[in-house]
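Q: What would this complex look like in 3D?
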Amino acid sequence: MWPAALLAASAASAADQHLITLKASAMPSGQLAYEMVSHKVKSSTGKESDLTDRYASGPTIPGPTLVMKEGDVAEVTLQHGIADSALPVSIHVHGVHFKIDSDGTMKVLNGVADEAAFPDKPYTYKWTAAPGTAGTWAYHDHAFGNPMLGAEDKGLFGTLIINPASGKVPALIDGKIVDVDLADVKREFIIWMHETTFWGQELNHIIEGGKEIPLWTNPTVGARLGEKVRFHVMGIGTAFHTFHLHAHRWIEPGATAGVDTVNIGPISRTSFIVKAGEGVGPGDWHYHCHVIQHMQSGMMGDFRVIE
Amino acid sequence: MWPAALLAASAASAADQHLITLKASAMPSGQLAYEMVSHKVKSSTGKESDLTDRYASGPTIPGPTLVMKEGDVAEVTLQHGIADSALPVSIHVHGVHFKIDSDGTMKVLNGVADEAAFPDKPYTYKWTAAPGTAGTWAYHDHAFGNPMLGAEDKGLFGTLIINPASGKVPALIDGKIVDVDLADVKREFIIWMHETTFWGQELNHIIEGGKEIPLWTNPTVGARLGEKVRFHVMGIGTAFHTFHLHAHRWIEPGATAGVDTVNIGPISRTSFIVKAGEGVGPGDWHYHCHVIQHMQSGMMGDFRVIE
Amino acid sequence: MWPAALLAASAASAADQHLITLKASAMPSGQLAYEMVSHKVKSSTGKESDLTDRYASGPTIPGPTLVMKEGDVAEVTLQHGIADSALPVSIHVHGVHFKIDSDGTMKVLNGVADEAAFPDKPYTYKWTAAPGTAGTWAYHDHAFGNPMLGAEDKGLFGTLIINPASGKVPALIDGKIVDVDLADVKREFIIWMHETTFWGQELNHIIEGGKEIPLWTNPTVGARLGEKVRFHVMGIGTAFHTFHLHAHRWIEPGATAGVDTVNIGPISRTSFIVKAGEGVGPGDWHYHCHVIQHMQSGMMGDFRVIE
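A: Here is my prediction, written as structure tokens for the whole assembly.
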């Protein structure tokens, strides 16, 4: 059933309403992770779709990548599925709008409520992707553990992509800064930098209806030569990194010169579009943290560009 | 008495002349800190005002927040008030113009003079907030200690705000990048990130004549819903941080996309205006360092937005 | 002899072709370093010039600073000159275009070849400074050592400057953001930040034909008052830094506000033009890392501005 508030919020616009249920779970490794339970969407014309099958089954690190666009609203319900623990677990989200009771923090911090799921007691958050919130944002736990500040560094983190209402993102393509239509982006790679490990995920928009593919640690990501692909790179935990992708370069929004190595701290990020193999051709293009101790600890992967 | 050079410097413009006296002192905790002794201003029309009462009395960390605008000039005299020490102490300022004898360094570095206060021997610095120097800048000791490189990490640091001649600063308000009139900004929060602690201060422009309020460590800062408030966040010492404010987002000057978590190293900064509670309403909005070890060490506070 | 491919590549444009030979060597200190063997250039009109004499003789840290402009192509041959070692050594370059066999990595990473020099077996890389590659970039080893990830932190790093086809770079001069003609820049300072040490080099364009001058560690760099000088500051290794230059300020490309202290991680950089002593006059203007432990370890130098 669609909540009345959710319906009202997007009545006047072409916005979508998202009804999402996530679960926080423990993996056999002992790490914690979010998993997708259900994601339904109702468009402004009333059309309903069920996106649940797009997601990987079971918990993943990073957690499910949620994609909305400016104007959309969402209700996100979190279930507590961490066996053998009665500690609360939550979702705090970055970038979008939400009232204080959707902050995902404990009452000791927000003064209102323990905004977290307990065993058999889910918690629901309401988000609005208002104008100006376009970007790549983190969501993560802000409650589990002792002290109750969150277990983001144990695996409870994921990615929220708010696409701009214009559907266009500036990028450095063929040597020029141009606006790229997101409809032309066929693959998106989500890459998190946690201490000395990359954790990856792919959104593949070529497969019918799109598909999220978990890539786990230090993955090889791939594209066909000339495809426009979008990277979302973010840090988590304690370490600082510099993300480098071989033989490609990109721009930060508003910048007038390209970079190929960017400072990444916890929850700071770079999000960019490149044309795979532009001017350099196919190959296993290395990406790695340029902090040499991190790299020597194995913090690297390949961007495989094939013809 | 107003120095002739100071009077001459601003004769042809609408610039203000600032005559400031600070003192470097030791606090009972053993930390060092600057305190305001006197701040007088003469406008281009010859009107004199005494701003001394706007400041907190006694030494504070961060030190007194000095506010000037592009075009202004200042003479800043430092008194040595550190009991039981004959070591020199100084002010090195960022951002503005000054001759080499106002650099605040020791002769071993600048080749000219020991530009520092000694017991019973104050030192005077001359600054010009020339066009192009608008921004939020640090001032700090560059002389005390052994070696004589400065005791900025012992508390001897403060903030210099140079407001642009235009009186306007770009900001992300109601989802759009607009120029905000600084006259509409009622509260400014100065937040320094030192190892695992925030040190705060408020400039309150609502109180008649304005008032600087020391907030000390990991403070709650507050605003009324919808007020435009300005944050100045800077690092000091050795650690790197990522500053995050819940449920609000902002832009860096020139950027075309919002952020809510920014890399902060020693003396690097983010300075931005937000509309308190924009789209999210009232609440105790958490701010914290997103480096999880720093956060778990207590590096956090609240931005309390009330109706 | 000029390779046919190189000639073909630039036939249609005003581009220069660069034929460069470098050698990786060991220094008596045990550090490794690149040295210039030969640098010849053929212009689009067929004029040949030999730039070899512009470079320092012998290995230097950082290695030879290579300067090209958008549109240029280069063949760079690396000789293995590290006595007592049969381990491969390579050049991986940032920013420009190159096919996967010019990546400078080992076959285990790129899947194609060991793109490195072995004793008595040089390796040749082909680079294209395509439109959009203007900027200051690193080149460094990506093969030496165990594991074969590169000895960039042992000294095998250098700088590649790609000047824009327009010949102009935005800068904050006399309080305004203007486009500076690179022909008006007489000195360029290359400053690398490695752990607690600066490694410097000067490109002096005043001397007939230009000259590269190695400056080694924590150097004094110098300019005449009012000269436009260009700084290229980059990190290498593991540490994060904040680069500060006293009494000067600059802009990042696209930014609308000045800075005087910038976060620098491994291979991230700031590249900027200032007018020496603008508004502040002559003096020994200190530059240093603002991470206080780095500064206290001696990570500092002077920018000496004379009349």
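A: To summarize the key features: Chain A has a mean pLDDT of 95. Residues 168-306 of chain A form a domain with the Immunoglobulin-like fold (CATH 2.60.40.420).
Q: Very helpful, thank you.
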